[in-house]
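FW: tagging you since you asked about this chain on Friday. Here's the raw sequence from the shared folder, copied in full. Didn't touch anything.
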Amino acid sequence: MAFFKKYNGTTNARLVRLERLIWVLIYGGLLSVVLAMFVEKTQAQDAGALYTGGALAVLAGAILIYVRSRMREEN
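HL: got it, structure written out here
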C-alpha cells in the first residue's frame, strides 16, 4: 500500500479544462502581484490595479480548487 496515491489525471474534458484554468488563474495572479511590486515605485496607480487583479485571480483559483474538490468524475 503506497503512501501517496498516483494521480494520472482525468479523462473528462470538462474537468481537465477546469484544472488548467485553476492553475492559470493562480500562477497568473501571483505573477501579476510580483509585477506590481516592481511597477509600484514608478507608477503607483497601475500597481494598485495589478495588485487588485492579481489578488482576485488567486482568490478565484482558490475558490475553484474547492469547487473541483466537490465534483465527481463521471465518465
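FW: Helices lie at 13-39, 44-70.
HL: agreed, and The chain has a mean pLDDT of 88.
FW: great, closing this out.
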